[in-house]
Write a structure and sequence with these properties.
Layout lengths: L21 H10 L20 E16 L13 E14 L6 H14 L3 E6 L4 H11 L6 E2 L4 E2 L5 E2 L11 E9 L2 E11 L8 E10 L11 H11 L1 E3 L17 H13 L5 E6 L6 H20 L10 E5 L12 H7 L1 E6 L1
Parallel strand pairs: 11-12
Antiparallel strand pairs: 1-2, 1-4, 2-9, 3-7, 5-6, 7-8, 8-9, 10-13, 11-13
Length: 345
């Protein structure tokens, strides 16, 4: 049984069942094949033949982290990770009964490699520690939509779809493929579905495709900046954008810079700190350097043409992750902590 990549969806699904009690067989036949509403295979990789799409999540723009090696630290977390911004597609499949995880995983693995995916790492045995590190980092079930029905066993026991992901006989692959100047990342995980008694294998696929964040959605006028400074003595510059891990200001930051310059030109005697902040991911010294470099990039932009703000009025500072405004435990909080602030001297 082989997988196909970038081909039309299968016209129909099938289920290979062992002998089961009448009620269990009837219930399973009733639900098997009813994919999550408004879901679909990813265009890049299709399902293992006969599989049922039971979990689905798709976001046009979101942020996630992928491990880039199977090295874990003393804290049992991945040591090498990459932050990926763009379209995120996550899909869960149940393979037909009797198909063991190793058969399903190897078919996906071969299909991905045949398509030109460069494998970062693969784990086929004793992958439990990687499973827990991945689950702790990405919360793979979070935000998923689930199919109607349950995971059935030949003895009529049932398990929820959200409990299907397990470390039992788990195997993991992380890879990437370049398309032009963009690199799409793929995480593949296959395991026993819920418990051995189900006789089913589950596969989780996460495809992260680089894509610029939609911008121009936040008003950043000089009046709003002035109000923030009057109320708190500082204001977060929500209209400044940088590539992940870099200090080069992106073009879509121009509207924010225009309004900052307008404020400073209207009040030529005021002086400001430009302060960069990061989340707590990674090495503190590296975060300190990055936060300072981003602040310096803003100062450089404002003191150059066309703004030409006097350099004596601006001082760049880097604060790394020393002053969070939210918890770094979840991505929503970390996103808030990655910021640049305008602070009155």
């Amino acid at each position: 049984m082989k997988l196909r990549l970038a081909l039309p969806l299968f016209a129909s699904l099938f289920l290979a069942l062992t002998t089961t009690p009448v009620q269990a067989q009837s219930d399973e036949a009733k639900y098997w094949g009813k994919d999550v509403p408004k879901s679909a295979d990813h265009p890049f990789i299709k399902r293992f033949a006969g599989s049922w799409l039971t979990g689905y999540s798709s976001a046009e723009w979101d942020i996630t982290k992928f491990p880039t090696s199977n090295v874990l630290g003393k804290d049992k977390k991945f040591q090498d990770i990459v932050t990926l911004e763009g379209k995120q597609t996550r899909i869960v499949y149940l393979a037909p009964r009797g198909k063991m995880p190793v058969e399903v995983f190897r078919n996906y693995q071969q299909a991905l490699q045949s398509a030109g995916v460069k494998v970062r790492f693969v784990c086929e045995m004793q992958c439990t520690a990687l499973y827990w590190a991945w689950k702790d980092m990405n919360e793979p079930n979070k935000g998923m939509q689930w199919a109607e029905g349950s995971i059935y066993t030949p003895t009529s026991s049932r398990y929820s779809h959200s409990s299907g992901l397990t470390p039992d006989k788990g195997m993991m692959l992380v890879g990437s493929i370049k398309r032009g100047d963009q690199e799409t990342h793929v995480l593949l995980y296959t395991s026993v579905a819920a418990f051995d008694s189900t006789g089913l294998s589950l596969t989780y696929i996460h495809v992260a495709e680089p894509k610029p964040m939609p911008t121009g959605q936040v008003e950043v006028d000089a009046t709003a900046l002035q109000n923030g400074l009057q109320e708190e003595g500082k204001v977060t510059l929500k209209g400044l954008f940088f590539d992940t891990g870099k200090a080069t200001i992106k073009e879509e930051s121009k509207a924010q810079l225009d309004e900052m310059a307008k404020l400073m030109q209207a009040q030529p005697n005021r002086k400001f700190f430009i302060v960069g902040h990061t989340d707590n991911v990674g090495n503190f010294e590296a975060n300190q350097t990055l936060s300072l470099q981003r602040a310096q990039a803003v100062v450089s932009a404002l003191t150059a043409a066309p703004y030409r703000i006097n350099a004596n009025r601006l001082v760049a500072k880097g604060n790394a992750n020393l002053a969070p405004v939210a918890s770094n435990a979840e991505e929503t909080g970390r996103a808030r902590n990655r910021r640049v602030e305008l602070v009155e001297q």
